[in-house]
Write a structure and sequence with these properties.
Blueprint lengths: L28 H15 L16 H13 L7 E7 L10 H9 L2 E9 L6 H10 L11 E5 L2
Parallel strand pairs: 1-2, 2-3
Helix pairs in contact: 2-3
């Protein structure tokens, strides 16, 4: 059993709880639902009612897992897309160069979404977009969006 804080992706990801595809990208809706349930249980801090949301955003382990999934998934003519969603500044932003290069090599299009709670953009929203932008595909402005979520 792992003993790390919920939401801390700096630790290695455990395949336990993934769908029968063991995290490979099959395109099967049931596999996606199983993998999303695993993510919600292990990385979203449990119930938002009973546990506070972590105040840090570590992405490196998630990027490394994505690289691994794309490497082991069949190349069958489907476009490869990674969508990164954040509500804050990425705290391990100086560690992404290798993972980003590997995503390029695997021909993965990377899109970024910054979600914010208010109509107006805050300094925090701008910082989140600034740290996410180097990860998205070119042209940068066409692969990142900053949206309000009610």
């Amino acid at each position: 059993s792992q003993s790390w804080a919920p939401g801390d992706s700096r630790q290695a990801l455990s395949p336990t709880g993934l769908g029968t595809s063991e995290g490979r990208l099959t395109g099967s809706p049931s596999e996606v639902l199983a993998d999303l349930s695993f993510h919600e249980s292990n990385f979203m801090g449990g119930s938002v009612v009973t546990q506070p949301t972590p105040q840090t955003t570590y992405l490196l382990a998630g990027l490394q897992k994505a690289v691994s999934l794309f490497r082991t998934s069949p190349v069958d003519g489907r476009k490869r897309v990674l969508i990164i969603v954040t509500d804050g500044e990425l705290d391990d932003k100086d560690k992404y160069q290798t993972a980003r290069a590997e995503l390029n090599q695997a021909q993965v299009m990377v899109f970024g979404v910054v979600v914010r709670p208010f109509d107006t953009h805050t300094v925090l929203d701008a910082k989140a977009q600034e740290t996410l932008q180097p990860l998205v595909s070119d042209p940068k402005d066409g692969h990142i969006v900053n949206v309000q979520v009610d």
